[in-house]
Specification:
Chain A: It comes from Conexibacter arvalis. The complex is a heterodimer of chains A (about 180) and B (about 450). With about 180 residues, chain A is of the alpha+beta class. Helix content of chain A is about 20%, strand content about 40%. By secondary structure, chain B is α+β, with helices and mostly antiparallel strands. Chain B has two domains: about 55-160, Rieske [2Fe-2S] iron-sulphur domain (Rieske Iron-sulfur Protein, 3-layer Sandwich); about 180-440, Alpha-Beta Complex (Naphthalene 1,2-dioxygenase Alpha Subunit, Chain A, domain 1), CATH 3.90.380. Helix content of chain B is about 25%, strand content about 25%. Chain B contains eleven helices and 22 strands. The model of chain B has no long low-confidence stretch (mean pLDDT about 95). The chains are: A alpha+beta (about 180), B alpha+beta (about 450).
C-alpha cells in the first residue's frame, strides 16, 4: 500500500478479500503465539522477502528515518526455515525456556496488489514478549505485507516490518514479528 | 583522582576491599564483584572511559560538510560534525547557555548547530556565532570567542575509525593503539579505498555489564560449541568441538587482544574468504607478514581496550547457504553498572564487488545483531551472568579463567605482541582484565 492509495481503493471491511486477508493475519498471530512454527512456515511463499529496516531518529524533513541498506532482519523462506530449525535443536538458549508472546494485529487495510491474485495489506502490530520472570518487552510497528493467492489459500510473499523503535529496547529478537 | 607517590590511584572501595584484590591475573581468578556494581561503574567512568581513547564513529558516516551524528563518550552526549574545511570535529553536545543539546537527531546535515531553547547558534566548527538579543548584554560581557562548544579533548582517526578521549594527557591515538595497528590493518587497511559503514549501526540495549561483552569478544573461541550449540546442531559449524581450536590468541601492546583462527584446508577459506578480486590490493597494502596472516586465517575476533570490538568471520547465514565473511565493529557503551548499549556496524571494503556486498550483509544480519542466530544466545549468557554475580554469596567465590595457561607464547609467530598457540584459552580474557585493573589503579596506565 502506498501513500497515494485513496480511500476508494481500499477494499471494504467484510468484503471477501478483506476478510481473507484479515483472517490470514489473525491465524498467523495465533500460530506464532502458539509456537506452531512448522505450520507458520507453510504460510510463507517460496519467493518471500521479509525485512525489518533499522531506523534512526531524524528530523521530519528527512522522513521516517528508515535506513537504506541496514536491517534487523533480512530474511527469505529458507532463512526463516533455518531459524525454525534452530529453535527445534535442544541448544537454542535464547528460546529455551521460551518466550511467551502475544501478537496483536489491528488497523488492517487491504487493497488489490500489483499482480493478479495479490493483496497489499498494511496493519499495525503490538507484540508483547515475556520470558521466565523478566518484565514485558514491547515490539510495535507497522507491517506492510503482500499476500499472494495460492489456490484457495493466501501466502505471505513480502513483509516489511516498520519498527517504531530506533534503539531496540529488547535484549534480543529471538521471536518472529 | 587521589594519587599516591607510586603513581597508584586510591585503591579502596567503600567496604574496605582493595581493587587489586579483584583481579588475580597470574592465578587466573576474577572477582565477581567487578560486575554489576555501581561503585565500580563510577570508577570505570572516571578512570577508564574518561581517560581512554573511545570509539566514536566512522568517517563514512559523515561524507559531507555539515553532516553530524550524535554519540556518547563516557556517558555524555557528543556530536561529531564535518566542517566546511572537511575536518571531522567532536564536541560535547551541550549549549554553553543552559546546557541543552544543540544536535538532537541521530544524524542530520546542518548549516549551524542551533540550540532550540534560546537560539544560541554554533558554526560547523563549534564557534558561537550568534546568541539571542546580543544588544542586551553589556559591552564585553558576551565573549563569544570563549563560548564555543566544548571540544572533545582529543579526536583522531585511524583507518577511517574515529576515536576521542576526554584526557589531555592521553598519548596520541597511534601510540595508544600501539602494535595493535598491525592487526587492525588486516581488516581496516587492506584495500586501497578502506572500509565504509553499510547503512547505519544496529543499536540495542542489553541488561549486562559491558565487560561480559568485551570479555566474549577478546577472542573467546571455546564458547562456540556450547553457547552456539544450536548452530553446530544445524551443521553450520564443523561437528568436532576441537576443530576451531587452532590458531593463536594474541596480546598486543596496551592490552588490545584478538584471536586468529585458520579455516579448514580448503582454498575458499583463505584470506578470510574475502573476494579474490581484492587480493592484488591486499598485496599492495599489507606487508608480507600481514599478508601471510590474512591468507592463513578465516576467523578473527578481538577487542581494542576498553570497549571496541571487531570480528571478521566466515559464517553460513542459512542452512545450505555458502560460507560468507563479514567485518563488524561493535562498541559496548556502558549506560549503568548493569546495562549496555550495543552499537553494531557492518563494514565493507569500498572496493568489494557488488554480489559480495549483498552476501556479506545477509550473512551478518542473519547471524549477529539482536536477531542473529548466533548472537541472540550471547545476550542470554551476558544478562544472566550480570544478574547472578551481584549476589553477596556468589561474590564470596571468584570466577575461574584458567584455560590454556600452561602454554608459552610461540616465539616463531611472525606478528608483534605475544601469541599463544591454539585459539581455545583464556589468555586474552586475562589480558583484558589485567589491563582493566591497570587502568583502575594507575595514574598513568598507558605508561606502565
Amino acid at each position: 500500500m502506498s501513500e497515494t492509495t485513496t480511500a476508494a481503493e481500499l477494499l471494504p471491511v467484510g468484503s471477501d478479500d478483506y476478510s481473507r486477508a484479515a483472517l490470514f493475519l489473525y491465524r498467523e498471530a495465533q500460530l506464532l503465539d502458539d509456537a506452531r512454527f512448522e505450520d507458520w512456515l507453510e504460510t510463507l511463499h517460496d519467493e518471500l522477502v521479509y525485512e525489518m529496516p533499522v531506523r534512526q531518529s531524524v528530523m521530519p524533513k528527512d522522513g521516517t528515518g528508515f535506513v537504506d541498506g541496514m536491517t534487523f532482519l533480512t530474511e527469505t523462506r529458507n532463512s526463516l526455515l533455518t531459524r525454525v530449525r534452530r529453535l527445534q535443536t535442544e541448544q537454542a538458549w535464547a528460546e529455551q525456556p521460551g518466550s511467551r508472546t502475544r501478537h496483536l494485529v489491528a488497523n488492517v487495510l487491504v487493497e488489490r496488489g500489483a499482480a493478479e491474485g495479490e493483496l497489499n495489506v498494511t496493519s499495525a502490530f503490538l507484540v508483547t514478549r515475556t520470558r521466565a520472570d523478566l518484565p514485558y518487552d514491547f515490539f510495535s510497528g507497522e507491517r506492510r505485507d503482500v499476500l499472494a493467492r495460492d489456490g484457495e489459500r493466501l501466502l505471505l510473499k513480502r513483509r516489511q516490518i516498520l519498527f517504531d523503535q530506533t534503539v531496540m529496547k529488547s535484549y534480543n529478537l529471538s521471536i518472529f514479528l | 583522582m587521589a594519587v599516591n607517590p607510586a603513581g597508584l590511584l586510591d585503591l579502596s572501595l567503600a567496604d574496605g576491599v582493595e581493587l587489586t584484590q579483584l583481579i588475580d591475573e597470574p592465578g587466573a581468578h576474577i572477582s565477581r564483584r567487578i560486575y554489576g556494581n555501581d561503585e565500580i561503574f563510577e570508577l570505570e567512568q572516571d578512570r577508564i572511559f574518561r581517560r581512554a581513547w573511545n570509539f566514536l564513529g566512522h568517517v563514512s558516516e559523515l561524507p559531507n560538510p555539515g553532516d553530524y551524528v550524535t554519540r556518547d563518550l563516557a556517558g555524555e552526549p557528543v556530536v561529531l560534525i564535518r566542517g566546511d574545511d572537511g575536518e571531522i570535529r567532536a564536541f560535547l553536545n551541550s549549549c554553553r547557555h543552559r546546557g541543552m543539546r544543540v544536535c538532537r537527531a541521530d544524524r542530520d546535515n546542518v548549516s549551524y548547530m542551533r540550540c532550540v531553547y534560546h537560539g544560541w547558534s554554533y558554526s560547523r566548527s563549534g564557534d558561537l556565532v550568534t546568541a539571542f538579543a546580543e544588544e542586551l548584554y553589556d559591552p564585553g560581557r558576551l565573549r563569544k570567542e570563549e563560548l564555543g562548544l566544548i571540544p572533545v579533548t582529543q579526536v583522531a582517526i585511524y583507518r577511517g575509525v574515529i576515536f576521542g578521549t576526554w584526557d589531555a594527557e592521553a598519548p596520541p591515538l597511534e601510540e595508544y593503539l600501539g602494535d595493535m595497528r598491525f592487526y587492525l590493518d588486516l581488516f581496516l587497511g587492506r584495500t586501497d579505498g578502506g572500509t565504509e559503514v553499510v547503512g547505519a549501526p544496529q543499536v540495542w540495549d542489553v541488561s549486562t555489564d559491558w565487560k561480559f561483552c568485551a570479555d566474549n569478544f577478546t577472542g573467546d573461541n571455546f564458547h562456540l560449541y556450547t553457547a552456539h550449540g544450536s548452530v553446530v546442531d544445524l551443521g553450520m559449524l564443523p561437528p568436532d568441538p576441537m576443530s576451531l581450536s587452532y590458531g593463536y590468541l594474541v596480546r598486543a601492546q596496551g592490552g588490545h587482544v584478538l584471536h586468529l583462527v585458520p579455516g579448514p584446508p580448503d582454498p575458499s577459506f583463505e584470506y578470510f574468504g574475502l573476494p579474490r578480486d581484492l587480493v592484488p590490493q591486499f598485496e599492495r597494502n599489507l606487508d608480507s607478514v600481514q599478508l601471510g596472516l590474512l591468507k592463513d586465517h578465516a576467523w578473527s575476533v578481538g577487542t581494542v581496550f576498553p570497549n571496541l570490538s571487531f570480528m571478521q568471520v566466515m559464517v553460513q547465514g542459512d542452512i545450505g547457504g555458502p560460507n560468507v565473511t563479514f567485518l563488524s565493529l561493535r562498541a559496548w557503551m556502558p549506560t549503568s553498572a548493569t546495562t549496555t548499549r550495543v552499537f553494531s556496524y557492518l563494514l565493507l571494503d569500498r572496493d568489494a564487488p557488488e554480489q559480495f556486498r549483498r552476501d556479506s550483509y545477509e550473512a551478518y544480519v542473519r547471524t549477529f545483531g539482536p536477531s542473529g542466530i548466533f548472537e541472540q544466545d550471547d545476550m542470554e549468557n551476558w544478562e544472566d551472568c550480570t544478574r547472578v554475580n551481584k549476589g553477596k554469596i556468589a561474590q564470596r567465590h571468584g570466577l575461574h579463567h584458567g584455560m590454556g595457561l600452561h602454554l608459552e607464547p610461540d616465539p616463531s609467530f611472525p606478528g608483534p605482541g605475544q601469541a599463544w598457540p591454539g585459539s581455545y584459552g583464556e589468555r586474552t580474557q586475562l589480558s583484558f582484565y589485567g589491563e582493566w585493573l591497570k587502568w583502575m589503579t594507575h595514574e598513568r596506565p598507558w605508561a606502565s
